[in-house]
Amino acid sequence: MKRAMLWGLAFGACAILGCTARYLKGASKTVCEVWIYSMPQGGRIYLNGHYVGRTPYKYTAVNEGDSSAHFIAADLSEVTVRKRGYDDEVEAVTVANCYKKLTLENEGVTDQVKRYKGDITLYLDEKEVAAEKEYGNLIIAAVPEEPDADIYINDSLIGNGKTSLLKLPAGSYVLKIRKPGYKQYARVISVLADNDLTISAMLEKASGESAEAAATIETEKVDLSPAGEEAELEEDQVPGTVGGKE
């Protein structure tokens, strides 16, 4: 009887000592799981410059022994998410901020494995797309068409009196045609996007005092009007016709 009791006490002591030893030993490894999300989802994820997948993405790391989750900071020191049409978003995870940045929580020890779980969401901003310029066509014909009839757009010489085709950004321009012995043709024109503007300018001859006026008229200034409008000029200053298609 006494022997049986002694054996029982011995087995009990071993069991207690074994459990205690197991408890004192603690976790044999530490596992950390972090879900990485983006808004919107489907972004490409780069960890420290290396592509690893698309959001949502599950990052898992294992460290031998009982430790904190700080060991993952090296892998996640630069988390970058890229998506077409959006600006890149970058998060820097450090030892100091990993628990807060990744909302990490210690879920305790089970079967000698300590587990941390957390998540991080990166919010992407849409890229600002620069507005592309819209263009229209300007077709100019001066009559008579001799080469010495000079054509100016905003006081820049662009050609002679023969038919010219120009592609211009939509907007308002000052058109002038000058030819010795003729009155200056001057008009504010409007070029519309995806439209053709055709101008047929009939130049009027100048004689006597009118010829002298034609020689000095180059100093006159014609102001630009807002896009889509034409300036009100005197009829004798703007001979010819202006036409366009809607």
Could you explain how this protein is built, in words?
There is one protein chain. This protein is mainly beta and 246 residues long. It folds into 2 domains: 28-123, Immunoglobulin-like, CATH 2.60.40; 135-244, Carboxypeptidase-like, regulatory domain (Immunoglobulin-like), CATH 2.60.40.1120. The protein is built from 3 helices and 16 strands. It has helices at residues 2-25, 98-101, 209-216, and strands at residues 29-39, 44-47, 50-54, 57-64, 79-82, 89-91, 105-110, 113-123, 135-143, 150-153, 156-159, 164-169, 171-178, 185-191, 196-202, 241-244. The strands form 4 sheets. It has a 4-stranded mixed β-sheet with strand order 4-1-8-7, with no helix packed on it. It has a 4-stranded antiparallel β-sheet with strand order 3-2-5-6, with no helix packed on it. The longest helix is centred in the first third of the chain and has 24 residues, at 2-25. Residues 15-24 and 211-246 have low confidence and may be disordered.
